Amino acid sequence: MGDLAELLLGLFWDGAMTSAKGQWLPRPVRILAGGLLLLVFLGLAGLLLLVGIDTKKPGLVLLGIGFLAVPGASLFRAYRRRRPPR
To answer: Which residues of 42-56 are buried (b: 16+ CB within 10 A; e: fewer)?
Structure first.
């Protein structure tokens, strides 16, 4: 059962990453694929935080915080690149 879940998540991840980066798809579809990736990533980070706090394991809490920081920094960098200079 774990192998099946890993296979499906791998297919989803690869497909969504390819779709989000590909110029051959319309912009709304790429935004939707990127949004789905962000939701999965944030859900995983929230789950890690919840389990880490519940079991009182600081390693999981730090990993969850790191998983929240990486997409935030990436979005900030993308926003800075797209914003026109003043």
So the answer is: eeebeebbeebeeee
Residues 6+ apart with CB under 8 A from 50: 64
User: Which pair of tokens denotes residue 36?
Assistant: 């789905």
% helix, strand, coil for the chain, step of 5: 85, 0, 15
- Location of structure tokens 């099946």: 4
Phi (first) and psi of residue 56, to 5 degrees: 60, 45
Sign of CA dihedral 67, 73, 76, 82: negative
Q: Which residue has the tokens 């990533």?
A: 41
Q: Determine the pLDDT at residue 86.
A: 66
pLDDT value, residue 34 = 78
Tell which wins on pLDDT, 60 or 6. Answer: 60
